[in-house]
Amino acid sequence: MILACSHNITERAKLWFPALGHNNKNVTGTIRDNFFIYDIKQNTKTKLNVENFDTDLVVHGFDLVQKSEEELLLYSVNHRRTGSVIERFSYKIGTTSLKHKKTFNNQAVLWAPNSVTVIDHNTNTFYASNVSSTRYITNL
């Protein structure tokens, strides 16, 4: 099982959490969420190192696709401070690394993505859902 976890949810919720409308782009340093492999049988988790990647990683929804018996592809929403994108990573089963392969950046289409579903990894075809805005509704 692969899990996505915020590095520090308390700090993130106050400073950079687009889903709640918290968009403080003046956060210092790189914001780096983490992916983990969770071994259900052993009840252990192992943090995955992200290779070939040196920018914000603010994970929202993601999808996994089996490319071969040894390799999974992970497509993830990433709410970078420069704009939301979809990232493609490769994971070789049994290792502790995710390798960044590609960024899909089209702000006209990916203006507020929150989930991604891969249709065909060979052509990088996927659906991404968007949220038009965050609204707080009171006085119902």
How many domains in all?
Answer: 1
General form: globular
In whole angstroms, the N-to-C terminal distance is: 40 Å
Count of helical segments? 1
Radius of gyration: 16 Å
Q: Mean pLDDT across all residues, rounded?
A: 83
**The CATH C-level class name:** Mainly Beta
Number of strands: 11
CATH architecture: 6 Propeller
What percentage of the residues does DSSP assign to strands (E)?
over 45%
Question: How would you write the strand order of the largest sheet?
Answer: 1-4-5-9-8-7-6
- The portion of residues assigned to helices is under 10%
Low-pLDDT parts are 133-140
Alpha-beta classification: mainly beta
Q: How would you name the oligomeric state of the polypeptide chains in this document?
A: single chain
CATH homology-level superfamily: TolB, C-terminal domain
Q: CATH topology, anyone?
A: Neuraminidase
Largest sheet: 7 strands, mixed
Protein model, in words:
- The protein has 140 residues and is mainly beta.
- The protein has one domain: Neuraminidase.
- Helices cover 5% and strands 51% of the residues.
- The chain has 1 helix and 11 strands, in the order βαββββββββββ.
- Strand 6 (59-66) and strand 7 form a beta hairpin.
Helices, strands, pairings?
Elements: E1 2-5, H1 9-15, E2 16-17, E3 22-23, E4 34-39, E5 44-51, E6 59-66, E7 71-80, E8 83-92, E9 97-104, E10 113-120, E11 125-130
Parallel strand pairs: 5-9
Antiparallel strand pairs: 1-4, 2-3, 4-5, 6-7, 7-8, 8-9, 10-11
Main features:
single chain; 140 residues; mainly beta; Neuraminidase; seven-stranded mixed β-sheet; two-stranded antiparallel sheet; 1 helix; 11 strands; 5% helix; 51% strand; globular; disordered C terminus
